[in-house]
Design goal:
The complex is a heterodimer of chains A (238) and B (143). With 238 residues, chain A is an all-alpha fold. Chain A has 9 helices and no strands. The chains are: A mainly alpha (238), B mainly alpha (143).
Chain lengths: 238, 143
């Protein structure tokens, strides 16, 4: 398993958070309406716990359902963190393999998805360290860099580009690729916070549970992360 | 000592996310009221957040679970095979260790038995005895 090769840090599936689950509707993963309390998060957690219980008893369908609920978000996280689709897919699978193995030790006194995300973020960090050791560099297409576009006399995409039509679509795709590329160049700790908060729209409370940071540290680090990304994207912002 | 304005600047992102306590928000608002640069910075951050939030949602490949299930099955099969293999090969491993230890012990015993003979046959020792019997050293111990 590549994630565990050559890295000192164990994946360490956490034994879930002891903090009380404070419902925060904004920015939480595919919240599901209904069920007992009417709160989407409670319903989602109830559903996850039920699936986890079944999966622990060897019900593969339950595990498949769990994967189905979270695969896109976990793949999104790994892709934004690693920046390479093939690597990200492999990594997301490693996350779920770790979860499958660790289900037996999951105590269930915290939300399942924060536990899952903690495993995912640790796996990402381990893989990044491993890839750095092997001189893996994410290849950024030259034509995506703002300097290259300016040199070619091509358009430097303005943030407020709202012109409808195919040109805007192409520009939008190019801009998106450029943002993803610049994001992948950030320090991994900064990248993680930007991905969790700004890309995946998680609440501060969830990010605190996942990263284990202090609240003040999270606020200042997220600010520094955004400043660093803003600096990188300056050529695109005019 | 940290500058309160720096602290407020660090809280600007949290202010943007509406994640500050009322006292902290007031400090940031005071800074914003006093500094056009801070207002510009906040506006830039707002644009940046919108821009990043606009990154397209990513979907895992359609066959994600199939690949995952295959990988899981392979790993489980490998792990159970490892256990089975270890159980099957255990007697052979023990036998190999016993054989190696026996051979080593026999070799050492043979060496120990051969050692006195080799001292007696040492040609230099014999020569010394012939050349100058007066200077002969201590006699070899004959068992």
């Amino acid at each position: 398993m590549r994630a565990s090769v050559g890295t000192g840090e164990a994946i360490d599936p956490p034994s879930a958070d002891a903090e009380p689950a404070t419902p925060e509707p904004a920015g939480t993963p595919d919240a599901e309406a209904g069920e007992s309390t009417g709160n989407p998060l409670d319903a989602q957690d109830v559903r996850d716990r039920r699936l986890v219980r079944r999966a622990r008893n060897g019900d593969e369908r339950a595990f498949e359902e769990l994967v189905g609920h979270y695969q896109h978000r976990i793949f999104g996280l790994t892709l934004r963190m690693i920046g390479n689709r093939q690597e990200a897919e492999d990594l997301a699978q490693e996350v779920f393999i770790t979860v499958h193995r660790a289900l037996a030790t999951y105590r269930g006194d915290g939300r399942f998805y924060t536990w899952l995300y903690r495993i995912a973020t640790n796996t990402c960090k381990n893989r990044i360290k491993y890839l750095r050791g092997r001189n893996f560099h994410r290849s950024v297409p030259v034509e995506d860099s703002p300097e290259a576009q300016a040199d070619n006399g091509g358009p430097v995409v303005a943030l407020q580009s709202h012109v409808a039509g195919p040109e805007a679509t192409v520009e939008g795709a190019r801009l998106e690729a450029a943002i993803a590329a610049e994001l992948a160049q950030l320090d991994p700790e900064h990248r993680l916070l930007i991905v969790l908060r700004d890309v995946q729209g998680m609440s501060y409370q969830d990010i605190l549970r996942i990263t284990g940071l202090q609240e003040g540290t999270l606020k200042s680090r997220l600010h520094r992360a955004r400043l660093a990304l803003k600096e990188r994207l300056r050529p695109y912002m005019r | 000592m940290s500058n309160p304005q720096d602290n407020s600047a660090e809280l600007m992102s949290a202010y943007l996310d509406d994640a500050l306590a009322p006292g902290e928000s007031a400090a940031v608002e005071e800074m914003l009221a006093a500094s056009p640069e801070a207002r510009e910075e906040l506006e830039d951050l707002r644009k940046l957040v919108q821009l990043v939030a606009g990154l397209g949602t990513v979907e895992a490949p359609r066959d994600f679970y199939e690949k995952l299930a295959r990988k899981l099955r392979r790993r489980q099969a490998f792990e159970s095979n490892q256990g089975l293999l270890a159980m099957l090969t255990m007697p052979f491993q023990v036998l190999c260790i016993v054989v190696i230890l026996t051979v080593a012990a026999m070799y050492m015993m043979a060496q120990l038995e051969a050692a006195p003979q080799s001292i007696e046959r040492d040609p230099q020792a014999t020569e010394t005895q012939q050349v100058d019997p007066a200077d002969e050293g201590p006699r070899p111990v004959v068992p």
